[in-house]
Amino acid sequence: MRLRNKPWAAGLIAAHPSMILVNPENIAGNWQARFAKEQPLYIEVGSGKGQFITQMAQKYPDRNFIAVEIQESAIAVILQKQVELKLPNLQLLLGNGAALTTFFAENEVAGVYLNFSDPWPKKRHEKRRLTYKSFLAEYQQIMQPTGYLRFKTDNQGLFEYSLMSLNAYGMVFDDISLDLHNSELAKDNILTEYEEKFSKRGQVIYRLEAHYK
Ligand SMILES: C[S@@+](CC[C@H](N)C(=O)[O-])C[C@H]1O[C@@H](n2cnc3c(N)ncnc32)[C@H](O)[C@@H]1O
């Protein structure tokens, strides 16, 4: 997903340093100080316009959340929402998910969410998929031993690839759903923008949850 350039984005980001950090170099290990309360920290990599992460932060006030997004124009839309909502348990990070180990310390994160990640269907782009082994290694390094990875997508090819990639990495599957919206997890499920769009078109939503051994 590429959003149209938003000329106001950089100014909005610069005006709210308490809500958003841009490629932070010295924050690893100290994220809790940016929240109202110290509590388990969950990140979403590739948050898009932030529907999921803002609703998660509202639904679970006893958890802290960070939206990690590589596109300035997308994270600026989340920031607009956060300027209104002022959620004390939500922070934003403009940066590349491939650099998570520079942004977070070991064991700093309790869980990682990936939602409707770009599928990068061409084999030569495999390394860009957020479930490629180099990303799995990043999540592992920053995640607590009790942590989990949760992934949703409408893309069958990316889902199958991810099952194989996580399995090859040695991860343990806690749950696999081939039709999330018709499963018992549906009632607690928070929809992302993409999820809403694709499920309205009648597409099935896949979900997996896994942890590291
Ligand atoms: C297809 S959109 C899905 C957005 C949202 N999660 C949803 O479900 O509606 C994928 C998002 O991931 C972001 N993204 C892709 N690669 C990324 C990376 N390496 N690090 C951080 N964000 C990334 C893109 O900029 C885009 O906003």
Strand content: 15-25%
Which ranges are low-confidence, i.e. pLDDT below 50, for 5 or more consecutive residues? none
Bound molecules: S-adenosylmethionine
Q: What is the multimeric organization of the chains shown? A: single chain
| Rg, Cα atoms, Å | 16 Å
Q: Which CATH architecture is right?
A: 3-Layer(aba) Sandwich
Q: Largest sheet, order of strands side by side?
A: 1-4-3-2-5-6-8-7
The computed structural class is alpha/beta
Mean pLDDT across the residues is 97
Summarize the structure.
The chain is an alpha/beta fold and 213 residues long.
Please provide a written account of the structure.
With 213 residues, the protein is of the alpha/beta class. It has one domain (9-211): Vaccinia Virus protein VP39 (Rossmann fold). It is built from seven helices and eight strands; from the N terminus they run αββαβαβαβαβαβαβ. The protein has helices at 9-14, 51-59, 72-85, 100-103, 133-142, 156-169, 193-200, and strands spanning 20-22, 41-45, 64-69, 90-94, 109-115, 143-153, 172-177, 206-211. Strand 3 (64-69), helix 3 and strand 4 (90-94) form a beta-alpha-beta unit. The relative contact order is 0.15. The mean pLDDT is 97. Bound molecules: S-adenosylmethionine.
